[in-house]
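Encode chain A's predicted structure.
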Amino acid sequence: MSGFSEYDDFDAVGLAKLVAKNDVSADELLDEAIDRTERINPEVNAITHKHYDEARAAIKAGLPDGPLKGVPFLLKDLYVFLKGTVTTNGSGLFKDFVSDHNATLTQRYIDAGLVIFGKTNTPEFGLTCTTEPRLFGQTKNPWDLTRTSGGSSGGASAAVAAGILPIANASDGGGSIRIPAAMTGLFGMKPTRGRTPSGPDRGEGWAGQSISHAVSRTVRDNAVMLDVTQGTTPGDPYEVQAPTRAYALDTTQDPKPLRIAFNTKTHGGNEPEPDVIKSIEDAAKLCESLGHQVEEARPHVDPAEFGKSQLSLICSNIAATVDGRLEALGREMQQGDLENNTILMAEMGRAVSGPDYTKSVLFMHQLGRTMATFHETYDVYLSPVTGSPPVDLGWLDMMSEDSAAYAERMGKFVPYTGMFNMTGQPSMSVPLYWTEGGLPVGSMFTGRFGDEATLFQLAGQLERARPWADKHAPTWAGK
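Encoded structure for chain A:
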Protein backbone atom coordinates (compact mmCIF):
# COMPACT_ATOMS: atom_id res chain seq x y z
CA MET A 1 0.00 0.00 0.00
CA SER A 2 1.17 3.48 -0.82
CA GLY A 3 -0.51 5.86 1.61
CA PHE A 4 -1.66 4.85 5.08
CA SER A 5 -1.67 1.15 5.94
CA GLU A 6 -3.97 1.54 9.00
CA TYR A 7 -6.69 3.04 6.79
CA ASP A 8 -9.12 0.17 7.49
CA ASP A 9 -8.96 0.74 11.24
CA PHE A 10 -10.78 4.08 11.08
CA ASP A 11 -14.05 5.50 9.84
CA ALA A 12 -14.24 9.00 8.34
CA VAL A 13 -14.50 10.70 11.73
CA GLY A 14 -11.51 8.71 12.94
CA LEU A 15 -9.44 9.62 9.88
CA ALA A 16 -10.26 13.30 10.32
CA LYS A 17 -9.11 13.16 13.95
CA LEU A 18 -5.79 11.71 12.82
CA VAL A 19 -5.36 14.52 10.31
CA ALA A 20 -6.22 17.09 12.98
CA LYS A 21 -3.49 15.65 15.24
CA ASN A 22 -0.98 15.52 12.34
CA ASP A 23 -0.70 11.75 12.76
CA VAL A 24 -1.40 11.38 9.05
CA SER A 25 -1.69 13.89 6.23
CA ALA A 26 -4.52 14.48 3.78
CA ASP A 27 -2.07 13.60 0.99
CA GLU A 28 -1.38 10.21 2.56
CA LEU A 29 -5.09 9.45 2.87
CA LEU A 30 -5.71 10.52 -0.72
CA ASP A 31 -2.82 8.36 -1.94
CA GLU A 32 -4.30 5.39 -0.11
CA ALA A 33 -7.77 5.99 -1.57
CA ILE A 34 -6.34 6.37 -5.07
CA ASP A 35 -4.22 3.25 -4.70
CA ARG A 36 -7.26 1.27 -3.57
CA THR A 37 -9.30 2.66 -6.45
CA GLU A 38 -6.71 1.63 -9.02
CA ARG A 39 -6.48 -1.88 -7.56
CA ILE A 40 -10.12 -2.72 -6.82
CA ASN A 41 -12.21 -0.54 -9.12
CA PRO A 42 -11.52 -2.69 -12.21
CA GLU A 43 -13.26 -5.51 -10.34
CA VAL A 44 -16.33 -3.60 -9.13
CA ASN A 45 -16.64 -0.62 -11.54
CA ALA A 46 -17.83 1.71 -8.80
CA ILE A 47 -15.99 4.88 -9.84
CA THR A 48 -16.54 6.35 -13.30
CA HIS A 49 -14.80 9.73 -13.01
CA LYS A 50 -11.36 10.21 -11.45
CA HIS A 51 -10.60 13.71 -10.19
CA TYR A 52 -7.19 12.95 -8.76
CA ASP A 53 -5.53 16.13 -9.99
CA GLU A 54 -8.37 18.28 -8.67
CA ALA A 55 -8.13 16.56 -5.28
CA ARG A 56 -4.38 17.09 -5.05
CA ALA A 57 -4.81 20.72 -6.06
CA ALA A 58 -7.43 21.22 -3.34
CA ILE A 59 -5.07 19.87 -0.69
CA LYS A 60 -2.20 21.99 -1.97
CA ALA A 61 -4.39 25.12 -1.89
CA GLY A 62 -5.29 24.43 1.74
CA LEU A 63 -8.34 22.58 2.99
CA PRO A 64 -11.03 24.28 5.08
CA ASP A 65 -10.70 23.51 8.77
CA GLY A 66 -13.90 21.45 8.91
CA PRO A 67 -14.79 18.40 11.01
CA LEU A 68 -13.95 16.01 8.14
CA LYS A 69 -10.78 17.71 6.99
CA GLY A 70 -8.59 15.52 4.82
CA VAL A 71 -11.02 12.61 4.38
CA PRO A 72 -11.26 11.24 0.79
CA PHE A 73 -14.76 11.49 -0.66
CA LEU A 74 -16.75 10.59 -3.77
CA LEU A 75 -19.77 12.29 -5.32
CA LYS A 76 -22.55 10.39 -7.00
CA ASP A 77 -22.65 11.21 -10.72
CA LEU A 78 -26.24 12.50 -10.49
CA TYR A 79 -27.20 16.20 -10.26
CA VAL A 80 -24.54 16.99 -7.61
CA PHE A 81 -22.24 19.32 -9.53
CA LEU A 82 -18.51 19.85 -9.01
CA LYS A 83 -17.26 22.92 -10.83
CA GLY A 84 -15.29 22.17 -13.99
CA THR A 85 -16.11 18.46 -14.08
CA VAL A 86 -18.52 16.32 -16.06
CA THR A 87 -21.81 15.20 -14.49
CA THR A 88 -23.41 12.65 -16.82
CA ASN A 89 -26.40 11.56 -14.69
CA GLY A 90 -25.55 8.10 -16.02
CA SER A 91 -26.83 9.11 -19.45
CA GLY A 92 -25.33 9.53 -22.89
CA LEU A 93 -27.51 12.61 -23.26
CA PHE A 94 -25.40 14.37 -20.60
CA LYS A 95 -22.01 12.76 -21.33
CA ASP A 96 -20.47 16.15 -22.19
CA PHE A 97 -22.20 18.29 -19.56
CA VAL A 98 -19.72 20.33 -17.49
CA SER A 99 -20.93 22.54 -14.66
CA ASP A 100 -19.44 26.01 -14.16
CA HIS A 101 -20.29 26.00 -10.45
CA ASN A 102 -20.61 23.78 -7.40
CA ALA A 103 -23.91 22.48 -6.11
CA THR A 104 -24.78 23.84 -2.68
CA LEU A 105 -24.32 20.35 -1.24
CA THR A 106 -20.92 19.97 -2.92
CA GLN A 107 -19.79 23.26 -1.41
CA ARG A 108 -20.84 22.06 2.04
CA TYR A 109 -18.77 18.93 1.54
CA ILE A 110 -15.79 21.06 0.56
CA ASP A 111 -16.33 23.40 3.52
CA ALA A 112 -16.32 20.36 5.84
CA GLY A 113 -12.80 19.61 4.61
CA LEU A 114 -13.61 16.58 2.46
CA VAL A 115 -11.32 15.80 -0.47
CA ILE A 116 -13.40 14.96 -3.53
CA PHE A 117 -11.41 12.64 -5.80
CA GLY A 118 -14.05 11.21 -8.14
CA LYS A 119 -17.65 10.34 -8.96
CA THR A 120 -19.52 7.06 -8.68
CA ASN A 121 -21.59 5.09 -11.16
CA THR A 122 -25.37 5.49 -11.30
CA PRO A 123 -28.13 4.20 -13.58
CA GLU A 124 -29.52 6.62 -16.13
CA PHE A 125 -31.19 9.50 -14.21
CA GLY A 126 -31.28 7.23 -11.15
CA LEU A 127 -34.31 5.46 -12.58
CA THR A 128 -33.72 1.91 -11.42
CA CYS A 129 -32.57 -0.02 -8.37
CA THR A 130 -29.51 -1.59 -9.98
CA THR A 131 -26.47 0.22 -11.34
CA GLU A 132 -25.90 -1.02 -14.87
CA PRO A 133 -26.00 2.01 -17.19
CA ARG A 134 -25.21 1.54 -20.85
CA LEU A 135 -22.83 4.51 -20.60
CA PHE A 136 -20.46 3.02 -18.01
CA GLY A 137 -21.47 -0.62 -17.57
CA GLN A 138 -22.33 -2.78 -14.58
CA THR A 139 -21.29 -2.01 -11.01
CA LYS A 140 -20.70 -5.26 -9.14
CA ASN A 141 -21.46 -6.11 -5.54
CA PRO A 142 -18.27 -6.70 -3.49
CA TRP A 143 -20.11 -9.42 -1.55
CA ASP A 144 -20.79 -11.36 -4.78
CA LEU A 145 -19.52 -10.01 -8.09
CA THR A 146 -22.40 -11.64 -9.98
CA ARG A 147 -24.98 -9.62 -8.02
CA THR A 148 -26.24 -6.06 -8.02
CA SER A 149 -24.88 -3.47 -5.60
CA GLY A 150 -28.27 -1.79 -5.75
CA GLY A 151 -29.28 1.53 -7.23
CA SER A 152 -29.33 4.21 -7.93
CA SER A 153 -26.40 4.84 -5.56
CA GLY A 154 -24.85 1.50 -6.47
CA GLY A 155 -21.48 2.97 -7.35
CA ALA A 156 -21.31 4.70 -3.99
CA SER A 157 -22.29 1.57 -2.07
CA ALA A 158 -19.83 -0.62 -3.99
CA ALA A 159 -16.98 1.84 -3.39
CA VAL A 160 -17.60 1.90 0.37
CA ALA A 161 -18.31 -1.84 0.64
CA ALA A 162 -15.10 -2.59 -1.27
CA GLY A 163 -13.04 -0.56 1.20
CA ILE A 164 -12.06 2.33 -1.07
CA LEU A 165 -13.40 4.87 1.46
CA PRO A 166 -15.58 4.86 4.58
CA ILE A 167 -18.43 7.08 3.36
CA ALA A 168 -19.70 8.39 0.02
CA ASN A 169 -22.38 10.72 -1.30
CA ALA A 170 -25.67 9.08 -2.29
CA SER A 171 -29.21 10.17 -3.10
CA ASP A 172 -32.66 8.65 -2.72
CA GLY A 173 -35.75 9.31 -4.87
CA GLY A 174 -37.41 5.93 -4.42
CA GLY A 175 -35.01 4.02 -2.21
CA SER A 176 -31.68 4.82 -3.82
CA ILE A 177 -29.75 5.25 -0.56
CA ARG A 178 -31.47 2.48 1.40
CA ILE A 179 -31.50 -0.15 -1.36
CA PRO A 180 -27.75 0.00 -2.12
CA ALA A 181 -26.95 0.09 1.59
CA ALA A 182 -29.07 -3.01 2.09
CA MET A 183 -27.42 -4.80 -0.84
CA THR A 184 -23.88 -4.15 0.38
CA GLY A 185 -24.00 -4.34 4.19
CA LEU A 186 -23.82 -0.60 4.85
CA PHE A 187 -25.75 1.96 6.84
CA GLY A 188 -27.86 4.36 4.77
CA MET A 189 -30.06 7.22 5.96
CA LYS A 190 -32.58 8.98 3.73
CA PRO A 191 -33.15 12.30 5.50
CA THR A 192 -36.41 14.20 5.90
CA ARG A 193 -37.62 16.11 2.86
CA GLY A 194 -35.77 19.43 2.75
CA ARG A 195 -33.12 18.42 5.30
CA THR A 196 -30.26 18.74 2.78
CA PRO A 197 -30.16 21.29 -0.06
CA SER A 198 -30.82 20.69 -3.76
CA GLY A 199 -29.70 24.13 -4.96
CA PRO A 200 -28.79 26.28 -6.59
CA ASP A 201 -30.12 24.69 -9.80
CA ARG A 202 -32.98 22.71 -8.32
CA GLY A 203 -35.48 23.34 -5.57
CA GLU A 204 -36.46 19.70 -5.24
CA GLY A 205 -36.09 16.38 -6.98
CA TRP A 206 -39.04 14.43 -8.32
CA ALA A 207 -41.66 16.67 -6.67
CA GLY A 208 -39.93 16.44 -3.30
CA GLN A 209 -39.38 12.69 -3.35
CA SER A 210 -35.62 12.82 -3.89
CA ILE A 211 -32.96 13.96 -1.45
CA SER A 212 -29.18 13.57 -1.13
CA HIS A 213 -27.09 12.26 1.72
CA ALA A 214 -24.72 9.29 2.11
CA VAL A 215 -23.97 5.60 2.61
CA SER A 216 -21.38 4.66 5.22
CA ARG A 217 -19.85 1.84 7.22
CA THR A 218 -20.57 3.47 10.59
CA VAL A 219 -23.57 5.29 12.02
CA ARG A 220 -21.52 8.15 13.44
CA ASP A 221 -20.00 8.97 10.03
CA ASN A 222 -23.49 9.23 8.61
CA ALA A 223 -24.62 11.46 11.46
CA VAL A 224 -21.62 13.78 11.27
CA MET A 225 -22.12 14.09 7.53
CA LEU A 226 -25.71 15.17 8.06
CA ASP A 227 -24.57 17.62 10.73
CA VAL A 228 -22.31 19.39 8.23
CA THR A 229 -24.75 19.39 5.31
CA GLN A 230 -28.23 19.87 6.80
CA GLY A 231 -30.07 23.17 6.64
CA THR A 232 -31.92 25.23 4.07
CA THR A 233 -30.74 28.15 1.96
CA PRO A 234 -32.75 31.23 0.94
CA GLY A 235 -35.33 30.32 -1.68
CA ASP A 236 -35.57 26.62 -0.86
CA PRO A 237 -39.16 25.36 -1.25
CA TYR A 238 -39.11 23.38 2.02
CA GLU A 239 -37.90 24.20 5.50
CA VAL A 240 -37.78 21.48 8.10
CA GLN A 241 -37.25 22.17 11.78
CA ALA A 242 -33.54 22.23 12.64
CA PRO A 243 -32.23 19.57 15.04
CA THR A 244 -31.96 20.58 18.69
CA ARG A 245 -28.45 19.14 18.95
CA ALA A 246 -25.85 17.46 16.76
CA TYR A 247 -26.89 14.13 15.27
CA ALA A 248 -23.44 12.84 16.20
CA LEU A 249 -24.44 13.13 19.87
CA ASP A 250 -27.66 11.23 19.23
CA THR A 251 -25.70 8.21 18.02
CA THR A 252 -24.03 7.91 21.43
CA GLN A 253 -27.27 7.89 23.45
CA ASP A 254 -29.74 5.01 23.60
CA PRO A 255 -33.30 6.07 22.79
CA LYS A 256 -36.06 5.90 25.32
CA PRO A 257 -38.08 2.67 25.07
CA LEU A 258 -39.79 2.98 21.69
CA ARG A 259 -43.05 1.61 20.37
CA ILE A 260 -42.09 -0.07 17.11
CA ALA A 261 -44.50 -1.43 14.52
CA PHE A 262 -43.17 -4.06 12.13
CA ASN A 263 -44.48 -5.67 8.98
CA THR A 264 -43.12 -7.70 6.07
CA LYS A 265 -46.00 -7.46 3.58
CA THR A 266 -46.14 -5.13 0.58
CA HIS A 267 -48.94 -2.59 0.08
CA GLY A 268 -50.77 -5.27 -1.89
CA GLY A 269 -50.37 -7.87 0.87
CA ASN A 270 -47.62 -9.95 -0.76
CA GLU A 271 -44.75 -11.43 1.23
CA PRO A 272 -41.05 -11.08 0.31
CA GLU A 273 -38.60 -13.96 0.03
CA PRO A 274 -37.98 -16.06 3.16
CA ASP A 275 -34.57 -14.52 3.92
CA VAL A 276 -36.16 -11.08 4.03
CA ILE A 277 -38.91 -12.25 6.37
CA LYS A 278 -36.26 -13.81 8.63
CA SER A 279 -34.26 -10.58 8.62
CA ILE A 280 -37.21 -8.45 9.76
CA GLU A 281 -38.34 -10.93 12.38
CA ASP A 282 -34.76 -11.05 13.64
CA ALA A 283 -34.56 -7.23 13.75
CA ALA A 284 -37.85 -7.09 15.63
CA LYS A 285 -36.55 -9.56 18.24
CA LEU A 286 -33.34 -7.58 18.59
CA CYS A 287 -35.31 -4.38 19.20
CA GLU A 288 -37.46 -6.17 21.75
CA SER A 289 -34.36 -7.44 23.55
CA LEU A 290 -33.17 -3.83 23.81
CA GLY A 291 -36.30 -2.86 25.72
CA HIS A 292 -38.55 -1.61 22.95
CA GLN A 293 -42.21 -2.54 22.58
CA VAL A 294 -42.62 -4.29 19.23
CA GLU A 295 -45.87 -5.35 17.59
CA GLU A 296 -47.02 -6.25 14.11
CA ALA A 297 -48.94 -3.45 12.39
CA ARG A 298 -48.89 -1.55 9.12
CA PRO A 299 -50.55 1.52 7.62
CA HIS A 300 -53.16 1.14 4.91
CA VAL A 301 -52.02 2.27 1.46
CA ASP A 302 -53.93 1.87 -1.82
CA PRO A 303 -51.31 0.07 -3.97
CA ALA A 304 -52.87 1.04 -7.30
CA GLU A 305 -53.15 4.73 -6.45
CA PHE A 306 -49.69 4.72 -4.95
CA GLY A 307 -48.12 3.22 -8.07
CA LYS A 308 -50.03 5.52 -10.41
CA SER A 309 -49.09 8.66 -8.47
CA GLN A 310 -45.44 7.73 -8.06
CA LEU A 311 -45.09 6.96 -11.76
CA SER A 312 -46.84 10.16 -12.77
CA LEU A 313 -44.54 12.34 -10.70
CA ILE A 314 -41.31 10.61 -11.70
CA CYS A 315 -42.10 10.31 -15.39
CA SER A 316 -43.17 13.96 -15.65
CA ASN A 317 -39.87 15.02 -14.12
CA ILE A 318 -37.89 12.78 -16.46
CA ALA A 319 -39.69 14.22 -19.47
CA ALA A 320 -38.81 17.73 -18.30
CA THR A 321 -35.15 16.75 -17.80
CA VAL A 322 -34.87 15.15 -21.24
CA ASP A 323 -36.69 17.94 -23.06
CA GLY A 324 -34.68 20.60 -21.25
CA ARG A 325 -31.39 18.97 -22.20
CA LEU A 326 -32.40 18.60 -25.85
CA GLU A 327 -33.42 22.24 -25.91
CA ALA A 328 -30.05 23.24 -24.44
CA LEU A 329 -28.28 21.16 -27.09
CA GLY A 330 -30.50 22.64 -29.82
CA ARG A 331 -31.36 19.32 -31.41
CA GLU A 332 -33.82 16.44 -31.52
CA MET A 333 -33.35 13.07 -29.85
CA GLN A 334 -30.72 10.85 -31.47
CA GLN A 335 -30.23 7.12 -31.36
CA GLY A 336 -28.07 6.24 -28.40
CA ASP A 337 -29.06 9.25 -26.30
CA LEU A 338 -31.24 7.29 -23.88
CA GLU A 339 -31.95 3.75 -22.76
CA ASN A 340 -35.20 2.06 -23.82
CA ASN A 341 -37.04 2.32 -20.53
CA THR A 342 -35.95 5.93 -20.07
CA ILE A 343 -37.46 6.78 -23.46
CA LEU A 344 -40.68 5.05 -22.43
CA MET A 345 -40.84 6.89 -19.11
CA ALA A 346 -40.23 10.24 -20.79
CA GLU A 347 -43.06 9.50 -23.23
CA MET A 348 -45.33 8.58 -20.33
CA GLY A 349 -44.37 11.79 -18.58
CA ARG A 350 -45.31 13.93 -21.57
CA ALA A 351 -48.73 12.28 -21.54
CA VAL A 352 -49.45 13.24 -17.93
CA SER A 353 -51.93 16.10 -17.80
CA GLY A 354 -51.74 19.05 -15.43
CA PRO A 355 -54.79 17.87 -13.44
CA ASP A 356 -53.37 14.35 -13.21
CA TYR A 357 -50.06 15.68 -11.93
CA THR A 358 -51.89 17.75 -9.33
CA LYS A 359 -53.88 14.71 -8.22
CA SER A 360 -50.62 12.81 -7.75
CA VAL A 361 -49.22 15.59 -5.59
CA LEU A 362 -52.41 15.60 -3.53
CA PHE A 363 -52.16 11.83 -3.04
CA MET A 364 -48.54 12.22 -1.96
CA HIS A 365 -49.48 14.80 0.65
CA GLN A 366 -52.41 12.73 1.89
CA LEU A 367 -50.10 9.75 2.27
CA GLY A 368 -47.92 11.92 4.48
CA ARG A 369 -50.93 12.63 6.67
CA THR A 370 -51.74 8.90 6.82
CA MET A 371 -48.27 8.16 8.13
CA ALA A 372 -48.38 11.08 10.55
CA THR A 373 -51.51 9.53 12.06
CA PHE A 374 -49.80 6.12 12.18
CA HIS A 375 -46.91 7.68 14.09
CA GLU A 376 -49.26 9.02 16.73
CA THR A 377 -49.25 5.41 17.94
CA TYR A 378 -45.82 4.20 16.84
CA ASP A 379 -42.45 5.91 17.15
CA VAL A 380 -40.78 3.83 14.45
CA TYR A 381 -41.93 1.58 11.61
CA LEU A 382 -39.80 -1.48 10.74
CA SER A 383 -40.18 -3.12 7.32
CA PRO A 384 -38.06 -4.68 4.56
CA VAL A 385 -35.91 -2.62 2.23
CA THR A 386 -36.30 -5.00 -0.71
CA GLY A 387 -38.28 -8.11 -1.57
CA SER A 388 -35.15 -10.27 -1.81
CA PRO A 389 -31.41 -10.29 -1.20
CA PRO A 390 -29.26 -8.86 -4.04
CA VAL A 391 -30.48 -10.05 -7.44
CA ASP A 392 -28.28 -11.13 -10.33
CA LEU A 393 -26.76 -8.50 -12.57
CA GLY A 394 -28.76 -8.28 -15.78
CA TRP A 395 -32.03 -9.29 -14.12
CA LEU A 396 -33.22 -5.69 -14.33
CA ASP A 397 -32.34 -4.34 -17.76
CA MET A 398 -33.16 -0.75 -18.73
CA MET A 399 -32.57 -1.72 -22.36
CA SER A 400 -35.21 -4.45 -22.19
CA GLU A 401 -37.87 -4.22 -24.89
CA ASP A 402 -40.36 -6.01 -22.64
CA SER A 403 -41.37 -3.06 -20.46
CA ALA A 404 -44.15 -4.99 -18.75
CA ALA A 405 -41.78 -7.72 -17.56
CA TYR A 406 -39.28 -5.09 -16.42
CA ALA A 407 -41.96 -3.25 -14.44
CA GLU A 408 -43.12 -6.52 -12.85
CA ARG A 409 -39.59 -7.31 -11.71
CA MET A 410 -39.13 -3.80 -10.29
CA GLY A 411 -42.40 -4.14 -8.39
CA LYS A 412 -41.33 -7.46 -6.96
CA PHE A 413 -37.85 -6.33 -5.93
CA VAL A 414 -38.50 -2.84 -4.51
CA PRO A 415 -42.09 -2.46 -3.28
CA TYR A 416 -41.25 -0.90 0.11
CA THR A 417 -38.98 2.12 0.00
CA GLY A 418 -40.80 4.55 -2.32
CA MET A 419 -43.60 5.19 0.14
CA PHE A 420 -41.29 7.18 2.40
CA ASN A 421 -40.01 9.26 -0.48
CA MET A 422 -43.60 10.32 -1.00
CA THR A 423 -44.20 11.07 2.67
CA GLY A 424 -40.80 12.75 3.05
CA GLN A 425 -40.02 10.92 6.29
CA PRO A 426 -36.52 9.98 7.44
CA SER A 427 -35.88 6.33 6.73
CA MET A 428 -32.76 4.20 7.18
CA SER A 429 -31.40 0.82 6.15
CA VAL A 430 -29.47 -0.95 8.91
CA PRO A 431 -27.26 -3.99 8.14
CA LEU A 432 -28.32 -6.49 10.77
CA TYR A 433 -28.63 -9.73 8.79
CA TRP A 434 -26.61 -11.86 6.37
CA THR A 435 -27.98 -14.92 4.56
CA GLU A 436 -26.41 -18.35 4.93
CA GLY A 437 -24.79 -17.68 1.55
CA GLY A 438 -23.13 -14.54 2.91
CA LEU A 439 -25.32 -11.88 1.29
CA PRO A 440 -26.35 -8.80 3.32
CA VAL A 441 -30.03 -7.97 3.87
CA GLY A 442 -30.95 -4.56 5.27
CA SER A 443 -33.75 -3.71 7.69
CA MET A 444 -35.63 -0.44 7.13
CA PHE A 445 -36.58 1.76 10.08
CA THR A 446 -38.72 4.84 9.39
CA GLY A 447 -39.40 7.68 11.81
CA ARG A 448 -41.69 10.66 12.14
CA PHE A 449 -41.25 13.54 9.71
CA GLY A 450 -38.29 15.60 10.88
CA ASP A 451 -37.16 13.09 13.50
CA GLU A 452 -33.80 11.79 12.33
CA ALA A 453 -32.65 12.10 15.95
CA THR A 454 -34.66 9.09 17.14
CA LEU A 455 -33.47 7.03 14.19
CA PHE A 456 -29.83 7.90 14.85
CA GLN A 457 -30.27 7.00 18.52
CA LEU A 458 -31.79 3.65 17.56
CA ALA A 459 -29.15 3.03 14.88
CA GLY A 460 -26.36 3.69 17.37
CA GLN A 461 -27.95 1.32 19.85
CA LEU A 462 -28.34 -1.40 17.20
CA GLU A 463 -24.75 -0.91 16.05
CA ARG A 464 -23.47 -1.36 19.61
CA ALA A 465 -25.64 -4.45 20.10
CA ARG A 466 -24.67 -6.06 16.79
CA PRO A 467 -21.61 -4.40 15.23
CA TRP A 468 -21.17 -4.67 11.48
CA ALA A 469 -18.42 -2.21 10.44
CA ASP A 470 -15.69 -4.85 10.67
CA LYS A 471 -17.52 -7.24 8.34
CA HIS A 472 -15.53 -7.02 5.11
CA ALA A 473 -16.79 -8.19 1.73
CA PRO A 474 -14.78 -10.87 -0.13
CA THR A 475 -13.77 -8.21 -2.65
CA TRP A 476 -11.99 -5.76 -0.34
CA ALA A 477 -9.33 -3.20 -1.24
CA GLY A 478 -7.55 -3.50 2.09
CA LYS A 479 -6.31 -7.03 1.51
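The chain has 15 helices and 13 strands.
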